[in-house]
Specification:
With 342 residues, this protein is an alpha/beta fold. The chain has one domain (5-337): TIM Barrel. The protein is built from 12 helices and 12 strands. An 8-stranded parallel β-barrel has the order 1-2-3-4-7-8-9-12, surrounded by 5 helices. Helix 3 packs parallel to helix 4 (97-110), helix 6 runs parallel beside helix 7 and helix 8 (211-227) packs parallel to helix 11.
Amino acid sequence: MTGLRFGLGVPTATEGMMYPIPYADISQAIQLAVDAERLGFESVWGNDHITTQRYVRAEYDEPPRFYDPLQYLAFVAARTTRLRLATCVLVMPFHHPVMVARQAATLDHLSGGRLVLGVGIGAYREEIEALAPGQPLHRGKHAAEFMEALARLFNERRASFTGEYISFADIENYPKPVQEPLPILSGGNSPGARRRAANLAGGWLPACLTPDEYRAGLADISLIAENDGRALPASFEPALQLVVSIGDSHRAAEKRFRSAQVYSHLASLEDSTMRGKLRDDLGSRNLVGTEAEVIERIEEYTDAGVRTFAGLLFAADTVEETLNQMEAFAASVIRRSGGVDV
């Protein structure tokens, strides 16, 4: 397992979904990132939401705390020295590419070249409709425009773009990011996410796929790129987001997984991100089992092409329990893997 990357999913916008309400205030959210670096995690990954989903409102009387991922990562940059600072994912319909280009370049400079942009179309259409009521949006087409626009802003002296959803003219975005190129990963399990990974991105970032599904997805990306005349860069990053639940027995690990808030969150995605993934099959789509079983499962994912286990979420409902599981995972998995030189 030498050379693998393990990243922590940090609570920028997880309350009510991956974790209960309340879960982490801002100081606790920052401390989890600092502890991740101390324990040997290679990266931290913040998600992006703008308003409470209907199913969360139905379950909780109290609203969740949603922190802006890029501002959060900028603060973490000042508290850490090694961690890559990543989004998992930045939801493109919430943002304008000109502003994201400026924010990303600034954060890349502040962190000394540690930013990774995972981008996606968003799992909950209701959030996009709340942001722009009555304005129709084809998220796949918008995403392709957004990613092409970012590439121009990062690479051209004066960038202009005219599309169906995005337009701007004669923008000088300086300074450019420290990293050339800035890592941009196409987030999502859909065929559209794979097409964008093949043609517009520097990596692929789906969630909760089996090793066989991941292997097939990578093969599809390579074929699309080849057919379109694009050579995937040597730096192309095959990443995957999973949930971790380690127990003294498989039954104990499965029980912890099914009782955690994150299990309910995954079930809520059956009509979007997790379409076609049966609820009873979720355990086999994540790192659930004894220490030995989880290590074996990681080796299966590695054989399928995964190199970055990004934004790992732990089957825990409190910050204290999360930290305990992070420590156990670091001792049993990360140190055994030998880490990675970044």
